[in-house]
């Protein structure tokens, strides 16, 4: 089922979003200082192609630099990309068939709002769920 959803997603949303993120990543690579943002753009582009069966988790080794970078990303691009995902998600949710695709857009909001310090893993991966350390 996730393969069918991914193929339909690719046709209606995924290809265009992935191309947009890839172009943004290339621009970030040209401006050498923004290479970490370029890497994040390519990671999000891969996620935008096949969102079903994957999920976003926080990286345990993310530090202060990721936090500062996320603030810069939020101001420059994150809020605008997030608004686009919210609008597309609402538009997809207006139809019964589009609800899973609207939810996929909503699922992309955290990684597009603050991409540094996050990773994309398969939903079936054991580290896809938060680990709690007691003690």
TrEMBL record:
Pfam families: YccF. The chain crosses the membrane at residues 20-42, 62-83, 89-109. GO terms for cellular component: plasma membrane. InterPro entries: Inner_membrane_protein, UCP028777, YccF. Keywords: Membrane, Transmembrane, Transmembrane helix. It comes from the Bacteria. Residues 4-54, 68-118 form the Inner membrane component domain. This is Inner membrane component domain-containing protein.
């Amino acid at each position: 089922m996730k393969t069918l959803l991914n193929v339909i997603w690719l046709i209606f949303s995924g290809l265009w979003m992935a191309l947009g993120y890839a172009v943004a990543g290339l621009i970030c690579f040209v401006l050498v200082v923004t290479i970490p943002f370029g890497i994040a753009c390519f990671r999000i582009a891969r996620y935008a192609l096949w969102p079903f069966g994957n999920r976003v988790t926080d990286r345990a080794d993310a530090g202060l630099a990721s936090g500062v970078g996320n603030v810069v990303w939020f101001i420059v691009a994150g809020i605008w990309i997030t608004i686009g995902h919210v609008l597309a998600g609402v538009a997809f949710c207006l139809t019964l068939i589009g609800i899973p695709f609207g939810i996929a857009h909503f699922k992309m909001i955290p990684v597009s709002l603050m991409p540094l310090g996050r990773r994309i893993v398969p939903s079936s991966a054991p580290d896809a769920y938060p680990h709690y350390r007691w003690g």
